[in-house]
Amino acid sequence: MQLVENLKWRYATKKFDETKKVSATDLEKIKEAISLSASSYGLQAYKVLIIEDTEVRKKLQPASWGQSQIVDASHLIVFCNYTKVQPEVIDEYLELKANTQGLNVDDLSGYGDFMKSKIGSLPEDAVKAWTAKQTYIGLGNLLAACAELKIDACPMEGFEAEQYEQILGLGAKGLSAAVIATIGYRSSEDPTQNSKKVRKPIHELFEVL
Fold first, then answer.
1. Which ranges carry the Nitroreductase domain (predicted)?
2. Which of 23, 48, 58, 172 has its CA 20 to 30 A from that of 165?
3. pTM of the complete model
4. 23 in a domain, yes or no?
5. Domain of 134, in residue numbers
6. How many alpha carbons fall within 13 Å on the CB side of residue 195?
């Protein structure tokens, strides 16, 4: 399976070649892979920021524990989850579903009411945690797509979310920074590229019941 070989190739790149940029064509492929990610109810209750601006990334670097990837990589990707899922978000999804699948939106009202009742019954912090989890599925697809395209990537939780939210003005948009990733091309000076992967043996990681 080529996917397995691609995943063996990838690693969390620590040092990028800042002179090499991901092409617009490849970036579109990565965006499509993220957009095709599974999400609860199909709501896609998150937004993905693609940050190219050098000055913005310089502001974000101190909030990212000073890590060089933030400024050296071709692109910084910020997965932002919705802090709330308002009823209108569900209504917009039902309209999109009806238009895409040639359905009558009124026929989806029961499904909509079900989602609203389930999500509406959750405490606000639980909703925020739930939407944040969705972003990691998109992150997984980003990593797999980059590996297939032989584009390096580094998923990163080492950042201060509140500072990101302030710098990027996320709070006013009802968003929270959940996880980030940098993409680009590894530097020949990155010593970690030659390290063997450290993974639990298959028989330890999996258990059949």
1. 7-185
2. 23
3. 0.97
4. yes
5. 11-84+123-189
6. 11
